[in-house]
Amino acid sequence: MIRFTIPDMDCEGCVASITQAVHKADPAARVAADLTRKLVDITSTLPVGALSSLIDAAGFTVQVG
User: Fold this and answer.
1) HSE (CB half, 13 Å, CA atoms) of 28?
2) Looking at the predicted structure, is the pLDDT value of residue 61 above 80?
3) d(CA 30, CA 26)
4) Residue 35 phi/psi, 5° resolution?
5) Which domains does the chain have, with CATH numbers?
6) Would you tell me how many other CB atoms lie within 10 Å of the CB of residue 9?
7) For residue 47, what are the CA distances in angstroms to 26, 36, 43, 53, 61?
8) What mean pLDDT value characterizes the chain?
9) 30 three-class SS
10) Would you state the pLDDT for residue 65?
């Protein structure tokens, strides 16, 4: 599992956008978000850098950890 902090994730629409971006590249990925803490946990076969790039391309600021 990889944990990202997404400071500009503010709503369920943001969560849906991030989830969709990840699932386009890895349909089997598991994505869990905590809006209050602005955290996204992803279980995927993709490397951290690829996941970070996908979230960034969806329009969000990404911090690992």
Assistant:
1) 3
2) yes
3) 9
4) -65, -40
5) 2-64 (3.30.70.100)
6) 24
7) 11, 26, 10, 10, 18
8) 97
9) strand
10) 74
H-helix segments, the chain = 12-25, 48-57
- Cβ proximity of 4 and 55 under 8 Å: yes
Distances from the Cα of 14 to the Cα of 9, 11, 38, 60, angstroms: 6, 5, 10, 9
- Look up residue 36 and give its amino acid: T
**Rounded Cα–Cα distance for residues 21 and 36 (Å):** 21
pTM: 0.94
Q: What's the mean pLDDT in 42-47?
A: 97
- pLDDT for residue 19: 98
Indicate the residue type of 57: A
Scanning the structure block, which residue is given the tokens 């089997």?
Answer: 28
